[in-house]
Amino acid sequence: MMPGTYDAERNPVLDRTWSDPPGIIGWFSVINHKTVAIRFMLTTFGFFVAGGVLALLIRLQLARPDSKLVGPDFYNQLFTMHGTTMMFLFAVPVMQAVATYLVPLMIGARGIAFPRMNAFAYWIFLMGGLMLYVAFILDIGPDAGWFSYPPLAGPEYSPGKRVDFWAQLITFTELSGLLEAVILITTIFKMRAPGMSLNRVPLYVWTMLVTSFMVMFAMPSVMLASTALITDRLVGTHFYNPAEGGDVVLWQHLFWFFGHPEVYMIFIPPLGFMSSIIATFSRRPIYGYPVMVLAIIATAFLAFSLWVHHMFTTNVPELGKSFFTAASAMIAIPTAAQMFCWIATLGTGKLNFKTPMLFVLSFFVILLIGGLSGIMLASVSLDLQVHDSFFVVAHLHYVLLGGAVFPLFGAFYYWFPKFTGRMMNETLGRWNFWLMFAGFNIAFFPMHIAGLQGMPRRVYTYPTEMGWGMLNLISTLGAAVLTVGILLFIVNVLRSRRGGAIAGADPWQAGTLEWSTDSPPAPGNFSTPPVVASRYPLWSEDGIAGSVTGLADHRREVLVTSVLDAVPDHRATLPEPSIWPFISALAVTVLFVASIFTPWAVVWGAVLVTAPLVAWFWPRRGPTERNRRREVKP
Predict the structure, then answer these.
(1) Which is it for strands 557-561 and 568-573: parallel, antiparallel or unpaired?
(2) What angle is formed at CA 261 by the lines to CA 147 and CA 342, rounded to 5 degrees?
(3) DSSP secondary structure string, 444-491?
(4) CA distance to 304, 337, 379, per residue, from 327 (Å)
(5) Which segments of 191-247 does DSSP mark as H helices, in order?
(6) In whole angstroms, how far apart are CA 472 and each of 196, 439, 611?
(7) Which of 158, 194, 218, 451 is the S-S candidate for 390 at Cβ 3.0 to 4.6 Å?
(8) Distance CA 106, CA 570 (A)
(9) How far apart are CA 457 and CA 79, in angstroms?
(10) What Rg, from alpha-carbon coordinates, does the chain have?
(11) Using an 8 Å Cβ cutoff, are 107 and 561 in contact?
């Protein structure tokens, strides 16, 4: 047993209290944060695979000049669906899904705040994604780009319902994201274990707290923008119609005020993955904890000050462009500070090069390339030359895949034992890493050159005379290698889930609190929540100073603590599993989808939504019959 390991016996009464209800209705009634998070992760990864298939079709179409594999209309749907899937159905939701599982465990909580709302957020996300892909299968998928600029996305140039489905998807996903942000903020602020003051909170939890606040401030902007777009199209308003006093540039301001912070909503959580994995596999705490926290907060603030660098080709005043150029360069400073802290940790630690560590180390290479090209694009003069070229495509993928997806895969390998109780195969993991690393660079680095040679984005074909054929062929071959690497990851997950080595509670000998529980954790996480006395409680003799007693076993009771110092304040009882969040999500889905075809659906749909919401929040007196049975059952 490691110093400070929290040793508590399993409580069968507590396990029954927090367990998922049985049966088909029980399956739709689940509110346990771990079960909902696993569903969330599987769903987002499913959308990731779907978006990857679309990307492969794009690469096959562009592999040679004058290709006729797909036509221009279907190609427009392909790149729109690919971008929309990756940005709205994978990148941010998967980060929130992982946090939904890990944050309560890392802060010593039995559950998550607002568990029914957490289940509702998942169902509404799933139904929004299914709506989009059903539309795509029926050949009415969106085709105006994942950013849907008016006037192209307006009623004059995009008749039909394609853009309407895109705009309504934004409502689905952003509603889900906002709910998850509220849940995570409340959980982190009010449900930490006693003693876990803010200066002892794990760095990963800090990244999710900051990200959740970013979601709260940024996502309403794009929801407002998409609502204005759909009312322009369906009701006849003129928010983006210059002929009637509207402004198409207004869309760009609203969208990119969300869109660029979104890049950091995707990027900041992997910084937490990095800190967790580097600390564990270098066998020492992360160097410069206060610097790391301040850098995370500074990145979030600066992320809201540079959205106009996506708009340098518009009529923004030149002085304003200079301000956003400076802000775009400055945002590299806090990330660089974190990288130096990681390097100091690695340089003074005893390194263990397991698969999670390999994915983390690739971050330094890939993000450096993506970050440098980002500094280049911060220059107005260069941006004017390469705007809407494949140079920007290369930069975007280097930042998002290198800065987010590679650490995310490292996190999957790192926490897979906690999720499943099994270890992933190390040999397959190394093959997975090297295929992904090689395939990624082969696929996307040539796009820098193609962009500098003038190849524009969003063209479905190009003539031989342009000389872009070989670069595109190399990119397509790299995409194939990358695909093989991802398929190998899926094989590794499926094999390890059934036959991997038994992990035990703490197979990596890590220092944070989630590794003090069983693998996978008990339904109620902790039989008696711990009292924390260290940032890495499992690495110090007195890291866990005791445990909390007095919480009931026969109901879902949690401890509520103060925001700053995590001093116990009072006890709260979380609600029982309920099917009403699922039924409410169905009702909201009917409202949203029907409103695409008639504005009256908002009126009648509101009536439909009211009934399950009333049932959801209907007060119940005393313990349920299920809890009464628990009170008398040994």
Answers:
(1) antiparallel
(2) 130
(3) HHHHHHHHHTTPBSS-S---GGGS-HHHHHHHHHHHHHHHHHHHHHHH
(4) 9, 16, 11
(5) 203-234
(6) 52, 14, 54
(7) 451
(8) 20
(9) 10
(10) 25
(11) no
Give the side-chain half-sphere CA count within 13 A for 158: 28
Residue 266 CB coordination number (10 Å): 23
Contact 447, 405 (CB under 8 A): no
Residues 108-133 have pLDDT tens digits of 999 999 999 999 999 999 999 999 99
Q: In 10 A of CB 238, how many CB atoms?
A: 15
- Look at residue 632 in the predicted model and tell me its pLDDT: 31
3-state secondary structure 19-34: CCCCHHHHHHHCCCHH
CA distances from 598 to 155, 229, 235, 241, 603 (A): 15, 15, 9, 21, 10
Quickly list DSSP for 298-314.
Answer: HHHHHHTT-GGGG-TTS
Closest CA to 600 of 613, 587, 591, 609: 591
CA-CA-CA-CA torsion for 40, 43, 45, 47, nearest 10 degrees?
-140
**pTM across the whole model:** 0.94
Give the Cα separation of 76 and 143 in Å (integer).
5
Domains of the chain: 12-261+509-624 (1.20.210.10)
**Pair of tokens at residue 316:** 């923004």
Q: Facing residues of 571 across strands?
A: 559
Task: Indicate the residue type of 21.
Answer: P
pLDDT tens across 142-194, in order? 999 999 999 999 999 999 999 999 999 999 999 999 999 999 999 999 999 99
Q: Are strands 557-561 and 530-532 parallel, antiparallel or unpaired?
A: unpaired
Helix (H, G, I), strand (E, B) or coil at 572: strand
Report the distance separating Cα 181 and Cα 212, nearest Å. 4
Packing angle of the helix pair 426-452, 406-420 (nearest 10 deg): 160
Query: Would you give the end-to-end CA distance of the chain in angstroms?
Result: 30
Other Cβ atoms closer than 10 A to 15? 14
**450: which residues sit within 8 A by CB, 6+ positions away?**
389, 390, 391, 468, 471, 472, 475
φ and ψ of 225, to 5 deg? -60, -45
Q: Where would I find the beta strands (DSSP E) of 305-400?
A: none
Query: Could you tell me which residue, 487 or 4, shows the higher pLDDT?
Result: 487
* Distance separating alpha carbons of residues 439 and 129, to the nearest angstrom: 28
For the chain, what's the residue count?
634
- C-alpha span between 298 and 210 (Å, rounded): 10
Go through 119-136 and write b for each residue having 16 or more CB atoms within 10 A of its CB, e for each that does not.
bbbbbbbbbbbebbbebb
Partners of 314 in the β-ladder: none
- Separation CA 526–CA 534 (nearest Å): 18
CB atoms closer than 10 angstroms to residue 165: 23
Distance CA 110, CA 552 (A): 12
Q: How distant, in Å, are the alpha carbons of 409, 436, 506 from that of 423?
A: 14, 20, 11
Under a CB-based contact definition with an 8 Å cutoff, are residues 197 and 531 in contact? no
Instruction: State how far the Cα of 232 lies from the Cα of 155, in Å rounded to an integer.
Output: 7
